[in-house]
Structures are given as C-alpha cells and as structure tokens.
Amino acid sequence: MKTIRLRAHPTLSSRDLETAVSLLLGGQLVAIPTETVYGLAADLFQPAAIQKIFTTKGRPADNPLIAHISSMRQLERIAERPHPLLLKMAERFWPGPLTLIFERKETVPPIVSAHLPTIAVRMPSHPCARQLIHSIDSPLAAPSANLSGRPSPTSAADVLEDFDGAIPAIIDGGPCAFGIESTVIGMIDDQFVLLRPGAIDRAAIENEIKITLIDPPRRGPILSPGMKYRHYAPKAKIRLVDSADRESSSATDGSVYVLEDLGAQNLYSHLRNADRLGYSEIVICLNDSIRQSEALMNRLQRACGEVHG
Ligand code: AMP
Ligand code: MG
Predict the structure, then answer these.
(1) Which of 10, 126, 127, 253 has the fewest CB atoms found within 10 Å of its own CB?
(2) How far apart are CA 143 and CA 239, in angstroms?
(3) Ligand 1: distance of its center to the CA of 29 in Å?
(4) Which CATH class is domain 4-209?
C-alpha cells in the first residue's frame, strides 16, 4: 500500500480534507497530528476500522482507545450520565490534553473500550484534528500512531518510520506542541483517580476544580489497562543518572547517547533518534525540572522497563 502524505497548515485544504474524510468514512486509518502526539485515527462507530487500529499497531486487545471529539454534542452521543465535576474539568481544560473516563453509551462499539463499561474521551485542540472530527461528524478513536511498545511519534517522520506502506494516509502537521500524551482521569466511586500523568499537571487540575486526585490503587482490578504494558521504549537500554554524575557515568568514546536537555517536547524524538543512529545505550541526566515533572518521570521509568500494575 502506498501511504498518501497530506499537509496541514495548520488545517487541510478542502481537497485534502475530502481525501481524509472519505478514507475515514470508508473505514480506513489516517494518522493525524494532535497537540500531544500523532494519533492513528479511525471512525469510532465502525468496529472493523477500530479492529484495524489494533492489528496495525500490534496493540493488545485489552488496551482501550481514547475517543476524540470536537463538540460537547458528540460527548452526549458516547457518554452516559457524566459526573458534574468531570463536566467541569471538560469545561475548564477542553480543548486540550486531558482525557476523562465516562460511562460508555451502549451504542458505542465495545471494541473501542476493550469491552470495558467505560469510555475515555478527550477534545483535542489541534486545528486539523478538530477540522477532521467536525467534518466526519463522528468521534475518532485514536491511540498514538506508533507500533505498540515503541516511543510515541511527535512528527510525521516518526509515524512513517513505523507505518510507511502500512496505512493509506498521514497528515503532516509539523512537530507536536506538547510531545507527551494526555493526562487521564477516571473515577472510583466518588473519587477522582489520576490514571496517567500527562501534559496537564496534577496540581493544575486539583487547584482549578478543587478536588484531590488519588493514585490508582495498587491492588484490585486494573483501572487503566494501558498502564500495565511496557510503553515508550526505545531499543537502546536507558540509564538515568544525576546531572552532577554525568562525567563519571558515561563513556567518552561516543558509544553512549547522552541526553542533557530533556523536556517533554523532545523526549520521544530523542529516544527514536538514538535508535535510528544505532546506539545501544542512552544516558539521561536528571535535573530538578525533570524530577518535578510527574509525567516525564513516569515515561522515563516506563522506558526503563519499570511497569506497575
Ligand atoms: P494511548 O491512546 O496509546 O495514549 O493510550 C490510552 C490510555 O488511556 C491507555 O493507558 C489506556 O489504558 C487508557 N484508557 C483508555 N480507555 C480507558 C478506559 N475506558 N478506562 C481506563 N483507562 C482507559
Ligand atoms: Mg500509546
């Protein structure tokens, strides 16, 4: 299959929009830019298209997808009895990198949620993602557009590295603004749970909504199946060191990829770059700003192979 490349500046021309919309309505996959990472999108209401996402990514069937919407009317089509405080979070942080877990409407194909009774939803802010969702007038299911287990893609070139020839089209919207996935919040009884730290800080949500976010319980059923997989991993082995120990901790002969200027925006592109250049080891120097980012520390620990739950 030849992968068509479309360009968004920051939205698609009407001709390219028509191409992308007809592929999606025809049950095909299109890789799209979002403000977090690139997504591999399919029409939420076509189970056969959703199945293609799982097959193409090699994604475990028990790892549910996020529904991307462009209006609150679309939320009503897929979520049942939304909790008022979840709606308040939506009002405050959408469009943007916050994913909220709602009760799933029965009309939503269960495969989207890996047969959970819930559905993860977010309204992206990227103009092209919004243009597409609005045009097909249906939510798009879209996990990150990488082969399962590989670092998430933050540019069109990253997506093509994994999927050139395997998907019908990709929309190039340039580099992603955040470069790290959305924050995911779910509920246990009446409590709000931070299921995945991400682009929006825990403190911003707590302060704005006046709630306390609890961590997922370590025992009992897994609330967010995705978190049990080793994600975000490059082929190279990763070692985290303190910035102060950098000299003594890495070889000086150039055999180690040393990363000193790490931020959420460049984490995944560095991990992919190290693989592309054939390094077998990556040394990441931790400084205070990295240590203070819950999302970055979470991705680094998982890239090192530490998996909880
Ligand atoms: P990705 O789309 O690859 O960024 O991953 C989506 C994340 O959202 C994974 O960690 C999933 O486990 C999580 N997720 C999606 N749907 C649900 C749901 N219904 N309940 C809990 N977590 C979910
Ligand atoms: Mg992913």
Answers:
(1) 253
(2) 27
(3) 19
(4) alpha beta
Domain boundaries, the chain: 4-209, 237-303
Evaluate whether 59 touches 142 at the Cβ level (below 8 Å). Answer: no
For residue 264, what is the DSSP state? T
Mutate to test the pocket of ligand 1, among 40, 152, 192, 195 (most ligand atoms within 8 A of CB): 195
The atom number, within ligand 1, closest to the CA of 195 reads 22
Are 69 and 85 spatial neighbours (Cβ–Cβ below 8 Å)? no
Closest C-alpha residue for ligand 1 atom 12: 226
Q: Which residues line ligand 1 (CB under 6 A)?
A: 63-66, 101, 113, 116, 118-120, 143-144, 181, 184, 186, 195-196, 223-227
Cα(208) to centroid(ligand 1), Å: 23
Residue closest by Cα to atom 22 of ligand 1: 224
pLDDT (tens place) for every residue of the chain, 309 residues total = 999 999 999 999 999 999 999 999 999 999 999 999 999 999 999 999 999 999 999 999 999 999 999 999 999 999 999 999 999 999 999 999 999 999 999 999 999 999 999 999 999 999 999 999 999 999 999 999 999 989 999 999 999 999 999 999 999 999 999 999 999 999 999 999 999 999 999 999 999 999 999 999 887 666 777 766 666 778 889 999 987 676 655 555 668 999 988 999 999 999 999 999 999 999 999 999 999 999 999 999 888 876 543
pTM: 0.94
Encode 83-106: b = buried (16+ Cβ within 10 Å), e = exposed.
bebbbebbeebbbbbbbbbbebee
Tell me which amino acid residue 154 is.
Answer: T
